[in-house]
From TrEMBL:
Superkingdom of the organism of origin: Bacteria
Domain ABC transmembrane type-1: 96-295
Location within or outside the cell: Cell membrane
Protein name: ABC-type dipeptide/oligopeptide/nickel transport system permease component
Primary localization class, coarse: membrane
A Pfam family annotated for this UniProt entry: BPD_transp_1
Membrane-spanning ranges: 9-30, 98-121, 133-158, 170-188, 234-256, 276-302
Organism: Thermocatellispora tengchongensis
GO cellular component: plasma membrane
Amino acid sequence: MGRYIVRRVLLAIPVLLGTTFVIYLAVYALPGDPIRALFGPNQVISPSVERALRERFHLDDPLIVQYGHYLAGLARGDLGTSFSGRPVSEIIRAGWPVTFQLGITAWLMEAVLAILLGTLAGVRRGKAADYTVLAGTTLAMGIPFFVVAYVAQFVFGVQLGWFPVSGADAGWPVAYLLPGLVLALGVLPQSARVTRNSVLDNLSADYVDTADAKGLPRRVVVWRHVVRNSLIPVVSLLGVSLGYMLGGTVLIEGIFNLPGLGYQIFTSIPQHDGPVVVGIGTLLVLVFLLVNLLVDLLYGILDPRIRLH
């Protein structure tokens, strides 16, 4: 187990370098001047001030040199400084709780609904419940989630007044239920279908016939045996979706005005604040890699036949 973890950590290093370089390249390619964006189009900048800022942030250096400076700082635990002078680590500390609460809320909704709906569809194969789940997931996959977000805001927030439509002042979980549900709907259809297919495979296994022959109640067979054995492919997908949710909160936080990491990226891109975008992007990549490692380790707990070497 220890060697497996070390090997996965070593393999994560080139992945981290590759993804952060792509993020850095995308930020570098943004049109416009970050210094001009910092001061605004109508404000006159002293040449000495502009020169000092360009030297401080290495803006006149080639891309690879800038990226080298960033990696050197990252090796020291320094995620950089925004063009406004605020450390990126401070911005992350302020926004991380919001993003974490939103991501966990959405992930829990996805996990519970995917297992319940997928199990229901699998057990009721060919019946109304199965057709309803399949039709609902097909419809959900065909509608862009930002459209769902605006419709949900208008219907459940403005018209019905069930949920707040903006900000996190209401606290957890009230302020995160509606955006969390919208975020969960982006990956729920795939998770529910994978659960359904896995349940169907296990329902035809020999151990189910044996349990039925022993006279065990059907609900015990399903929930104690079938569902547990069906969770291995589902856990893999849920692990990936957790990383997706933490990294995919940019538009959701922007739409619902939640002051998390996604909102910081959402507002930093138009301002050309590259250090904030790259620093937060690096953190989200690290979280995604860690979640995938934890999912792999969880395989061995769910199925002792799996050995990690």
